[in-house]
Design brief:
Blueprint lengths: L4 E3 L4 E5 L10 E5 L5 E3 L7 H10 L7 E3 L5 H4 L2 H7 L4 E4 L2 H5 L4 H11 L1 H7 L11 E3 L5 E5 L2 E7 L8 E5 L4 E5 L23 H12 L5 E4 L3 E3 L2 H20 L6 H18 L4 H8 L4 H16 L1
Parallel strand pairs: 4-5, 5-6, 6-7, 11-12
Antiparallel strand pairs: 1-2, 2-3, 3-4, 8-9, 9-10, 10-11, 12-13
Helix pairs in contact: 5-6, 7-8, 8-11, 9-10, 9-11
The chain binds zinc ion.
């Protein structure tokens, strides 16, 4: 087992795929059961990390993959995976049918936000997968893992309209994607992730409320890792999201760039109050794309006024 893999109880493996070449940014998960499944592939550039991690735990073939949502840090490497494991089929929101066999539009939409140069350098290009390798998800559908164990797909919009989370009742784990937000190793509080065009506070809270009612032992989030205090984290996430909205709402006359600078200063102050040093904070804040966060929140607030 290589150093990027961490084994948890009940056959759950957390895999660090070194997103943007850095550790502890993006985790994929592998549930090793009678019918095993990979959850998330990470971006294309992370593919070598994913494969060497899987091989280090003896996985020579991947037959099934579940994707939380169609953002390229989660699904970008899927074409690489299907090139290597031709029989792999992918569980994803029905919009995957439209985009994964022809990812050009998805690529264009993301390039408009991040720029094409940034995308190629940091996440890498997405390759298509055949239509017949895609299985679309329905809310409440069970993916069988073992004789007495299922992974339940829960439709979970709010961060993205094409978002599913996956509930493994047997281990009390929800694989959250980006529904909760981000928790990096340098701080315990949840950093919201509220991108345009889909972020909607009310819808996201409905999703979090639904997850909060489940029997939970841990949350497995994409950015980053498995956390053993699920209910506390869900409460923290709601509080952080409301704080961000309130903060951004008070900056109506600033451009997205100016408002993002103020947001970053405020977040830094919050991290510093936890006793975290400046270099560590800057290391993680660097890839936050805060202008996009401002844009996501403003779009939600404007839509609400209509
Ligand atoms: Zn993400």
């Amino acid at each position: 087992m290589n150093t990027n893999v961490k084994k948890f109880d009940n056959g759950i493996y957390q895999i660090d795929v070194h997103m943007e070449g850095k550790p502890q940014r993006m985790s994929c998960y592998y549930i090793d059961t009678t019918d095993p499944i990979l959850i998330e592939v990470g971006p294309s550039n992370s593919f070598p990390y994913l494969i060497s991690a899987l091989e280090s735990i003896g996985i020579q073939d991947v037959k099934r993959t579940a994707i939380t949502h169609l953002h390229l840090d989660h699904v970008g490497g899927i074409g690489h995976l299907n090139e290597k494991y031709k029989k792999n089929f992918v569980y994803v929101h029905e919009l995957g049918i439209k985009h994964l066999p022809n990812p050009e539009r998805l690529w264009k939409a993301v390039s408009d936000v991040y720029t094409e140069d940034w995308l190629k350098k940091n996440w890498g290009e997405i390759k298509p997968i055949p239509l017949e390798n895609i299985k679309t998800l329905n809310d409440g559908a069970d993916i069988n893992l073992d004789k007495n164990r299922n992974l339940k797909a829960l439709y979970s919009p709010g961060h993205a309209k094409h978002h599913y989370t996956f509930y493994d009742e047997f281990s009390g784990t929800v694989f959250m994607g980006d529904t909760l937000g981000l928790i990096y190793p340098h701080g315990s509080f949840v950093q919201p992730n509220l991108p345009p065009p889909d972020f909607d506070q009310e819808i996201l809270f409905e999703t979090l409320n639904k997850i909060e009612k489940l029997n939970l032992n841990q949350l497995a989030i994409a950015h980053f890792g498995i956390h053993k205090n699920p209910y506390e984290l869900i409460r923290n996430a709601k509080e952080s999201i409301n704080n961000w909205i309130e903060f951004i709402n008070k900056l109506p006359n600033r451009s997205d760039k100016e408002a993002s600078e103020e947001l970053v200063n405020w977040i830094k102050t919050n991290y510093k109050s936890l006793g975290i040093d400046e270099d560590t904070i800057n290391n993680y804040i660097g890839n936050g794309n805060f202008e996009m966060q401002i844009n996501g929140v403003r779009r939600f607030l404007n839509n609400k006024k209509l």
